[in-house]
Structure formats: C-alpha cells, structure tokens
Amino acid sequence: MTPFITFPFSPILTLPKIFGLNSSASPTTTNRYLVLYNIALVIAYLTIFAMRLLHGEERQVFTLNKVVVYLHLFCYLTVFLSNLLSNWLHSKTLALGFLKLEIFDNALKKLEFELNYKKMRRVFYVSLCASSGVYAYVVITDLIIDGLESDLVNWFSIYIPLTMNFFTAFIISFTLFLLKERYKKLKEYLVLVLSGEVSCNVKHFTNWYLELTKISNSLLSTFSLQISSMFLLILVTTTSNAYMLMKIELNSTQYVVIVNSVLIHLTEMVVLIFTYYSTSVKADQIVAASPKLLTGVPESKTTFRENMECHFMIKENRLRVKIFGMFSLDPSVLLSMAAAVVSYMIVVIQFKNNEAPIPQDKLMRNANRGVLVRTDKDAVDLN
C-alpha cells in the first residue's frame, strides 16, 4: 500500500494486486514481488490453456463451428493478457492519477468543500461485498454443477480470466464513482460562484475543472485495453449462451448455469455504461453552466474577455473515455456493438449444420465452454 495515498484510494489500488492487476509500489516504482506474482500467473495460466487445447484435440468435435470454439478460447486468453499488459504498462500511471486526485481533494478542502469520505468508504465496501457475493454464487454454482463433473482444467481456463475481468469492471466502476463525486462538488461550487455567494477568480475555477478533467481522462485511459477486451468477451459469450438458450433443450441445472453466465456479463456491461454515463452527466452539467460566465460573475475581478476564454476552455475540454486512443465510448460505438451482436448471432445460426438433435438424456453440459458432452464421450460444439 502506498504510504502517501489515503482512503478512499488505497483500497482501489490494493484490491487489484490480489488479482494481478496492479504491480505498482508508488507512481514511480514497481513492486518486484508483485511482478514475480504476475509472471507466475502467466506461467500457470498458459500451462492450463495449453492443457485445455490438447485436451480439446482428443475429442471429436462436430459443427457448429470449430472456429467459434477457438474464438472463445482466444477471447479468454485476450482478456487475461490484456489485464496483465495493462498492469505492466499503466499501473504506475494509475497510482499517479490517484495521487493527483488526492491533491485535488486537498485543494477543495481549502475552499471548505470537503468530500464525504465516509460515504465513499461505505459505497466501496457495500458494493464490493455485494458484487463479490453474486460472483461467488455464479462461480460455485458452475463448479458444483459442471466443473467437478467434467474437467477442472476447462473450468480454470475460463474462470481465471473471468475473475480478473469481473474485478476489473468493479475497479473501473468505482473509479468512475470517485470522479463523479468530485465533478458533483465542483458543480456545486460553480453554482455558488455564479450566484456571488463566494468570491472566486473564474480562472482558478477553470483551472480546477481542467485539472480534474485531465486527471479523469488519464485515469480512464489506463483501462482502455481492458475495456476493449472485456466488451469483446461479453459480446461473444452472451450471444453464444443466448443462442444455446434458443436452440438447445436444456434441463433446469444447465439452464441456471447459462442464465447466470449471461446475467453476470450483462451486469458488467450495464454497470460500466451506467457509471460512465452518470459521471459524464455531472461533468456536462459544468459545461452546460459555463455560458453563464459570459453574463458576468459577481465578486469576480475578471474581465468579459477572460470569462469568455474560460467558457471556451471548459467547453473544449470534456470527459472522454478513449479506446486505443481512436474513438470515444459514446452511443454510436454502443450501437455498433449491438449491431455486431446481431450479426454474430445471425452467422452462428445460419452456419449451423443440420445434424439430428441429440437426445436430452445423453447430454451433459460443460457450462460456458460451448461444448455438449455425450455419455459416449463424443462432443458437440455449440459455438
């Protein structure tokens, strides 16, 4: 734990270390023991992944479609490697971003706008316990129903990256919540400035807004690779599971496992989109109120020209989540993702072979892995 970062930032830097998502000791140094832990994770998972591939080659795989099996495996491997790569590239940047955010909080305290750390502490622990409980239910259910009866190698090859993916989503969501609280306080302060209840140099307020936006964009950009791989995995697994629900007759336990998988992935996506949207709304409220600076600010010694410059600086610097530095996470991107889901499902259904259905009493589902296993040890790929 970094000695200079206080709550609520220390838990959000400590939690990912458990899952190999953060190896920084400070904004300038790396913890060598955490790096060794990361290397051990890579060796262990690649070994499991290789065993999974070799194990799969021993089975007879029918269509539909062998390519989609490897697509699933590629998604799991991509999620695992993208989380570790993001850690190696950006963990110190993430720690630096939270340090800057703490300095920003100290500046707000000088203005008598102290943040409610008790609320943030309560939100962190309640949300962590609730989300961990839900995820533990899904994992244990799949392990009892499927993992112990089929193959633990397959089970670990899925749930190691899924666990990293789940807690990455939690960390990103809580980071967005922290940023939203600060934009909320900044908006409250702007209202007081515009009403003349506090005396403040408009340039100083503009600098605070620009600094918070810069910190926000820097923090969120460290997650861009993880967000991309996360959405890829979610789209592939949810559409495959939805296809199985529509096309395959399942018993109650198989149905529970698939529905749990779909819901946990959709929840990750919805929570991320909602927290980003709510944070953007708070930031946009400041941008929307900035034209009032042109009408003059009581108790301010700035000129109209300076107020106009501040207005345009606020307007041109907005909160944005960049994916690979190429596009923002906005409604058009989400629409294209929805189109990709539909296209993927059409392709999956269209290219399904016309084999006769397999009797229900001869099927045992290997959950979330796109494989139906006959009692005679043949396998049917549902992906």
UniProtKB/TrEMBL annotation:
Q: Does the keyword Transcription apply?
A: no
* Record GO biological process: chemosensory behavior; male courtship behavior; sensory perception of taste; signal transduction
Q: How does it sit in the membrane?
A: Multi-pass membrane protein
Describe its function. Answer: Gustatory receptor which mediates acceptance or avoidance behavior, depending on its substrates.
According to UniProt, the name of this protein is Gustatory receptor
Tell where it localizes. Cell membrane
The Gene Ontology CC terms held by the record are: axon; dendrite; neuronal cell body; plasma membrane
Q: InterPro entries, per this entry?
A: 7TM_chemorcpt
The residue ranges crossing the membrane are 34-55, 67-85, 123-145, 157-179, 223-243, 255-277, 323-347
Provenance organism: Zophobas morio
Alphabetized, the UniProt keywords read: Cell membrane, Membrane, Receptor, Transducer, Transmembrane, Transmembrane helix
| Source lineage | Eukaryota, Metazoa, Ecdysozoa, Arthropoda, Hexapoda
Query: Mostly located where?
Result: membrane
Q: Does the keyword Transmembrane helix apply?
A: yes
